[in-house]
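Input/output pair, single chain:
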Amino acid sequence: MVTHTGQSADRSLDELVDVARQVSAAVQSVISGKPDAVRLALTVLLAEGHILIEDVPGVGKTMLAKSLARSIDCSVRRIQFTPDLLPSDITGVSAFNQEIREFEFKPGPIFANVVLGDEINRASPKTQSALLESMEERQVTVDGKTYPLNPPFMVIATQNPVEMEGTYPLPEAQRDRFMIRLSIGYPDRESELSMLDSHGSSEPLEDLKPVAHAGDIRALVAAVREVHVSGPIRQYIIDLVTATRSSAELRLGASPRAALHLMRASRAYAALDARDFVIPDDVQALAVPVLAHRLLPSTAAMVGRELPDQILNAIVRRLPLPSRQ
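Output:
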């Protein structure tokens, strides 16, 4: 293995791969037949990002989120998004304490290591905006006072793209804060048959035990930050993001935050392969999951029924690969 960060980094990377495999195996004991989805979820966790799981009902969106959270021994809170949910129901509220005759802050469910947001698009835009500060700055401001969120901190949100009644589309500022949008999809025939056997008479999620601690994840995140990204790879990321902004098929391209997310995710993706350096294949594999949900197609592309995923794949194919360094 090529080393850019020294022997101590080698040991950290070996530890990363070992712990990641344990977490992956634990999650796949509940979600069978979806190794790519599990790997993307782990990538986001180790890249300090947030994940939006967008798919039709019944394919395991919430189950994936729950199993990932349960595989790590850390604080987990679930928020069921509904139209009557208030911002203070997420962030917390200052309440008057009769004993000390002062207002004291009562933390909301956002103060957890892993926050599960179920059906996020059912809450009003005002309530959705309560997540903006916490997802980007990892802090919450209530009544003029700022409270930090303890690492690791990850939001796993789900939404149903088909049923639109009673939902509010996520604003672009909200979607841009999710590092990856993930679609699980239907299982293959063998996996669905296995699911009938394993889930038919018991609940595998109840038997899932933590295989890592919050401290382990913090150490692994630090190891991922040391994964080397060469100059040509950085330039390739910028060229890819810039190409989405100049494409005639898109009226909104990827943001600078998207470029940063793509680099961070590529580091984690490389580390999961026991590499301490990023290669073009990492960037290409993550281009659609990281960038597509941030893009808006032009009117002509919408008339032609071209999806952002298709447009982005075409851009990736056209873009020349970076030179070796």
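The two ends are 16 Å apart (CA to CA). Confidence is low (pLDDT under 50) at residues 1-10.
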